[in-house]
Design brief:
Length: 315
């Protein structure tokens, strides 16, 4: 057999193996860039989070493959062979935590109290979160910046939010504010609690506890505060539109963009960061309420920029 024929025969034998190895390598590389996003709902806030996550991840890691799954029907097999799992909303977080995937999980768009109640992940399967809640220090810093002449803070919490209220109380005390706080266990206790903590005009800080501050109680809370000449700091844009003087919140798009950045870093081999509050945020102001209460306010964008500047300056 000539040398040339022998060489061709060897190549004919080797090439399928090489081709198979390259295909396997490509499949492994693709699986390393697979991200499963499990959503609680198709409603607007969840879609905004998803779109911002996709955009941020695509910009940082163009080869990433994002598959969106419904939280009410996701199964354990759907989460296999993923480099990262991202949940959007409390219901999706609960479902994924119950399934216990052996993959890193990043929870988004949920309160810190909901994250703390999730089943613990399997050993060796890290999980983290980007909370809806704003840090207590950020909220109190906003009050000192926006309402420097108001020395009192009012807090109402329940069993699920006592920890949040405690952190707010500590942050307010550190800023030399007077705090009047109480805890309630039932809806019937809310009105007496409001009268108690607002016996003297104070800034009522609404905490993200759906048993206390929800769509059924919001009007009662805001009207009672208004009658007691007390402004309210809310935790959403909706609260500001409903009648809270101030709002401090992160938009779904801001949280989604932050999640996309975290996902890109995980795909590059970094570990999940520790659970944290959202990095970006906005301040909202209800100017009609400000005029009715006779309170002069700086523009919302100025308050936002100043808070961001102060946080960047912290060591």
């Amino acid at each position: 057999m000539s040398f040339r024929r022998l060489l061709l025969l060897l190549l004919w034998c080797i090439l399928p193996c090489v081709s198979h190895g390259m295909a396997a390598h490509a499949d492994n590389a693709t699986s390393e860039l697979r991200v499963a996003v499990v959503t609680s709902s198709h409603e607007a806030p969840y879609q905004e989070t998803l779109q911002a996550l996709r955009a941020a991840l695509s910009a940082a890691e163009p080869g990433a493959n994002v598959e969106v799954l419904a939280g009410d029907s996701v199964a354990a097999g759907d989460l296999a062979n993923r480099r990262l799992i991202v949940t959007v909303g409390t219901q999706a977080a609960q479902r994924v935590a119950e399934l216990g995937p052996a993959r890193p999980v990043l929870h988004t768009l949920l309160p810190a109290s909901a994250f703390e109640r999730l089943p613990r992940p399997q050993a060796g399967a890290p999980s983290s979160a980007i909370f809806l809640d704003q840090p207590a220090e950020r909220q109190i810093a906003l009050l000192r910046l926006a309402l420097p002449d108001w020395p009192r803070v009012a807090l109402i919490s329940g069993s699920a939010s006592d920890g949040i209220a405690s952190r707010l109380r500590d942050a307010a005390t550190a800023r030399h504010l007077l705090v009047r706080a109480t805890s309630v266990e039932a809806d019937d206790d809310l009105y007496p609690a409001l009268q108690q903590v607002l016996a003297e005009p104070a800034v009522l800080v609404a905490v993200p506890d759906p048993r206390i501050f929800n769509s059924y109680t919001v009007q009662n809370v805001l009207l009672t505060a208004y009658r007691n000449r007390s402004p309210v700091l809310g935790f959403s844009a909706a609260y500001v539109r409903a009648g809270a003087l101030l709002g401090l919140y992160s938009t779904p798009a801001q949280i989604g963009a932050q999640a996309g950045g975290v996902a890109a870093r995980v795909l590059r081999g970094e570990r999940l960061p520790a659970p944290a509050a959202p990095a970006q945020f906005e301040v909202g102001i209800n100017l009609n309420v400000a005029r009715s209460l006779g309170i002069a306010m700086k523009p919302a964008h100025e308050l936002t920029a100043e808070l961001q500047r102060r946080e960047r300056a912290q060591p």
